[in-house]
């Protein structure tokens, strides 16, 4: 039986993670697409990265699949993606899903609290 740790270890091995300071330094410097993968209620409580899209981790497959009626137009396999969540685990798992779907340039930026602590720009979301 696979455990949650097994899935997280595989995701962390497949998806590079950068520090919050590195992420803040990259923000706005390239054409990367920033995505918060937390649930809407968590985003409403703490805000998110300024300009980030929201795709809940459990919806990622549908948003990323061009054949899905729920596909998001900004989701393209050849684009660069930066994923954030509460602490880094959900971003790693969502990133692994994207990699498995053929998205090649996916980076885990960890948790929003670290982003805020590093001085990253945020926005409130209702």
Q: Can you give me a brief rundown of this structure?
A:
It contains six helices and six strands, in the order ααβαββαβαβαβ. With 126 residues, the chain is an alpha/beta fold.
Number of domains: 1
**Count of runs of 4 or more consecutive helical residues:** 6
Classified by CATH, the class is: Alpha Beta
Shape label: globular
Lateral strand order in the biggest sheet: 3-1-4-5
Largest sheet: 4 strands, parallel
Q: How does this model look, in words?
A:
Helices cover 38% and strands 18% of the residues. By secondary structure, the protein is of the alpha/beta class. The protein has one domain: 3-Layer(aba) Sandwich (Oxidized Rhodanese, domain 1), CATH 3.40.250. Helix 1 crosses helix 5. The chain is globular and about 35 Å long. The N and C termini lie far apart (40 Å).
């Amino acid at each position: 039986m696979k455990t949650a740790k097994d899935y997280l270890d595989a995701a962390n091995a497949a998806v590079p993670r950068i520090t919050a300071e590195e992420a803040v330094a990259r923000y706005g410097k390239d054409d990367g697409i920033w995505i918060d993968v937390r649930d809407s209620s968590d985003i409403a409580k703490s805000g998110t990265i300024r300009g980030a899209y929201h795709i809940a981790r459990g919806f990622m497959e549908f948003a990323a699949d061009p054949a899905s009626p729920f596909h998001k137009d900004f989701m393209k396999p050849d684009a660069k993606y930066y994923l954030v969540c509460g602490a880094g685990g959900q971003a790693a798992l969502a990133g692994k899903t994207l990699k498995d779907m053929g998205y090649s340039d996916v980076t885990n930026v960890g948790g929003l609290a670290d982003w805020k602590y590093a001085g990253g720009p945020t926005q409130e979301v209702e």
